[in-house]
């Protein structure tokens, strides 16, 4: 599947601001990162305004969940969900995505979005290919979304699969370098979308993006990304 094909839907979400007194520091680069990601997906991947929708910036956990459910319900070709912000690990080792309401790392986590909600929304989508990109700490804890039990084998075989691209392992922190306009992981992803990979193939796939990031980010002293994939989503 091509990202710019008909029926594709992209949701870009980011949280850079938190309540006063929060133990989570604000990340000023999130707003510019989200805006530039939307721009580069439109310019380089051929996505329309309707396919991109409006970015979800500094949402509440309810706004976040509603936007994700809507995008998943509208997608038929490719569903791409991209999150930039803080990732939090609960005492039970579950990954949560911070919202503007999140004020403590492990307290009041009902004000963050559990990654399990992402999995549930994606498992119900009609999209043939699902891609999740997490630019947050501990992103490697994210699992592939499960397939609906009712999907027939022939339909499953026709699907493109699922792909999770994580900015860091399940034990590492993603970085936003002070003074830089974008977060470190997303800055590199924006670069490869704009300029391509001189060492890669002419057509850029999500697996090609992963290999580029895996090669270039550690060379800059940044965490190496991780990924999970199923079926043919890497192409």
Question: What does this 3D model show about the protein?
Answer:
This protein is an alpha/beta fold and 235 residues long. Helix content is 31%, strand content 17%. It has 7 helices and 9 strands; from the N terminus they run E-H-H-E-H-E-E-E-E-H-E-H-E-H-H-E. A 6-stranded mixed sheet has the order 2-1-3-7-8-9, with helices on both faces. Helix 5 (153-158) links the parallel strand 7 (129-135) and strand 8 (161-166). The N and C termini lie close together (8 Å). The model is unreliable at 148-157 (pLDDT under 50).
Oligomer: single chain
**Total number of helices:** 7
Helix content: 25-40%
Strand content: 15-25%
Order of helix and strand elements from N to C terminus: EHHEHEEEEHEHEHHE
Structural class, from secondary structure content? alpha/beta
Distance between the termini: 8 Å
Low-pLDDT runs of 5+ residues are: 148-157
Number of separate strands: 9
* Main sheet summary: 6 strands, mixed
Mean pLDDT: 88
The largest sheet has its strands arranged as 2-1-3-7-8-9
Secondary-structure blueprint of this entry?
Blueprint: E1 9-14, H1 29-45, H2 49-52, E2 56-57, H3 61-74, E3 78-84, E4 87-89, E5 95-97, E6 113-114, H4 115-123, E7 129-135, H5 153-158, E8 161-166, H6 184-195, H7 206-216, E9 226-230
Parallel strand pairs: 1-2, 1-3, 3-7, 7-8
Antiparallel strand pairs: 4-5, 5-6, 8-9
Helix pairs in contact: 1-6, 3-4, 6-7
């Amino acid at each position: 599947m091509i990202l710019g094909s008909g029926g594709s839907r992209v949701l870009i979400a980011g949280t850079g601001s938190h309540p006063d007194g929060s133990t989570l520091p604000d990340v000023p680069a999130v707003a510019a990162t989200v805006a530039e990601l939307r721009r580069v997906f439109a310019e380089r991947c051929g996505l329309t305004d309707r396919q991109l929708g409006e970015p979800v910036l500094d949402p509440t956990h309810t706004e976040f969940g509603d936007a994700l459910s809507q995008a998943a319900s509208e997608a038929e070709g490719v569903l791409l969900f991209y999150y930039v912000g803080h990732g939090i690990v609960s005492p039970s080792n579950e990954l949560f995505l911070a919202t503007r309401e999140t004020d403590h790392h492990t307290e009041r986590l009902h004000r963050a979005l559990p990654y399990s909600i992402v999995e549930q929304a994606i498992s119900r989508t009609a999209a043939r290919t699902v891609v999740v990109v997490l630019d947050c700490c501990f992103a490697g804890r994210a699992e592939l979304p499960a397939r609906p039990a009712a999907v027939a084998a022939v339909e499953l075989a026709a699907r493109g699969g699922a792909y999770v691209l994580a900015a860091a392992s399940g034990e590492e922190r993603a970085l936003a370098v002070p003074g830089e306009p974008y977060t470190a992981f997303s800055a590199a992803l924006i670069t490869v979308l704009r300029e391509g990979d001189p060492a890669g193939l002419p057509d850029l796939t999500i697996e090609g993006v992963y290999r580029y990031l895996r090669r270039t980010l550690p060379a800059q002293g940044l965490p190496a990304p991780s990924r999970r994939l199923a079926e043919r989503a890497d192409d």
